[in-house]
Design a protein that fits this description.
Blueprint lengths: L6 H30 L18 H23 L4 H10 L6 E7 L2 E4 L3 H4 L2 H11 E7 L4 E3 L3 H4 L3 H7 L6 E8 L7 H12 L1 H27 L19 H23 L5 H31 L8 H14 L3 H25 L3 H36 L15 H57 L5 H32 L6 E5 H18 L3 E5 L6 E5 H18 L5 E9 L2 E9 L30 H11 L3 E7 L2 E9 L4
Parallel strand pairs: 7-9
Antiparallel strand pairs: 1-2, 1-5, 3-4, 3-5, 6-8, 9-10, 10-12, 11-12
Length: about 650
Amino acid sequence: MDSKFNNGFKTVAVFVQMVCLIIVIVVTALMVNLFGRSRLSFRDIGSDYSFFHSYHFAEEISGEIKTLTLFLQMKELDPDYTKYKQYRLRYDGGESNLYYWLLRDGAIVSNMPEEAADTKEGAKAFAEKMGSYLYYNDETVHLDGDLARIGAAQTVDFLRLFQNREEGELYIAVDVSLSKKDAIADAAEVYETYFPWIGMGLIVAVLSFLCFLLVMIYLTLAAGRNEKDDRIHLHRIDYLPTEILFLFLCFFIFGLIAFCVRLGGKDWGISSALILTGTLVFLSDAVILTLYLSFVRKIKAEQFMSCSLTVYTVHTLKACMQRQDIARRTKIQFGAYGLLVAFFVWEAFAGRHVWAAAALFFLFAYLSAQFLQQAVWRKKILEGVRQISHGTVDYQLNSREFGGDYRELAEEINGIGEGLMHAVEENTKNERLKTELVTNVSHDIKTPLTSIINYVSLIKMEGSWNENVENYVGILEKKSQRLKQLTEDLVEVSQITTGNIMLDMQPINMVELIYQTGGEFNELFEEAGLTVITRLPKEPVMVLADGSRVWRVVQNLYNNVAKYAMRDTRVFVELKVNDGYGEFSIKDISAQEIQKSAKDLSGRFVRGDESRQTEGSGLGLSIAENLTKLMGGTFEIALDGDLFTVSITFPVINP
């Protein structure tokens, strides 16, 4: 909750905003009015506020001098028409603060008093007495007096006034006391009434404008909020479609401009203009501020576009298109674009309309951009499919980057990846459960199995029995030992699968290891009638491996030969070094037909002996392969008919 957004603060802010705006607009209107009527100039700002030294006075007198010279030219001709009579009433009627004394060809024309107009000296003294004057000598083309700078612009008019004359002089004087009520007095009254307030008005206007901006920022932040909660609260007007509010705003602004233009054509007094301006600002600000705050609340509530007839129409069309299949959607889009292109082409070439050519260009640019965008989307989707197909099942496409059917396609691909990931996780979980089950069962079996083996040993130590009992005890001992070996193999497979195994990597001489392992199996091979052909290098072949684990691998391979090789055949054992790798291989001829593939034979519990007449467990090759890969080597099985070959390879290191 925030107390600064309560209704009291917002009401005061609206009032302050309106007052500041009225001040700014009224001061601006006053300035425009004064500038528009040439009653003020920027050059006057900062002056001593004297009307007779102002730009407005200069403009007023300049116009009066121009009009006076025209009247004097007309007076010589003594025409009888309305314009001359108006000027005569203006300057010779005794109601003007502008006096003149003209000497041409010895004749004097003046509206000064008779005692001053009889002589040049009298006219000069009268002009100086009035307080502001201008003297022009046509013979020397010389200007004098404090109005000389103003009269310089009328030099051409003076020359026309004395054209084809032998001599001529002119005095123009302004009564600075402004004893007569004429245009000059009116201008002075307006100037002295409003100009002293201009400087202060500008300062107040600037401060009011800054205050207006600050209050508008506050109203923008406070729109839709209150002191009760942090939610955005909408008003009834906010539920109207955005287009209706925007069109109303446009019509209101255009109507206001038209109304102001119409009023501007009339000659309003300054006071009336200021009152009218203030009233219009008050009404306009109430309407525009209401619409502005409504737009702000819509934007904050994220309903500016959703509460829109255009967006609703577009969403409805999209929904209708989405209900169609892809082929039909494509046909509809192709038909729509085709009609648009045909229409614009006809209007551009047949009707020769520039707007149609521009629309055709933008349509082509839009379609080109769409084509390029879809190419980018296809590339991203292809990359996602490639990532998932390569095993990165958790790869996800950002569906927000796509549009149309491509977004749906991206979401479906993400669904495929998620499905595969769930399947992999489920499979991994099942494998983990199986491994844990094997490990737990193996440990549970070892305890009673150890007791069985121990009691068999105790029975054998008790003495001799009949031949049948001895055979039974021998079979029991043999089978218990096999069960013990199987249990140990299961535990080892479980450890390898779960990664719960520690390796002690040391340099190992493979030549020596193979000799030792072969020696251990010589007796077993002789009983099976197998002849071992060994081909080993004379120099040591050093590899980096765990000694006990690599011995286990080689032992499993020898043991596999002893169990499954055909009797009275040869077994080839070979170790060679190629390109920095030491490759150990063992070859034998299978006693039974092998119906499994080379890849299947390294699986757990897989045996080449389908009848399962031998004593193998089907774990030896699986253990050997996994241990070899854990130590950084490679394990390969090759089949050529009944010829069975197993190869393991390790990088050779310097001894």
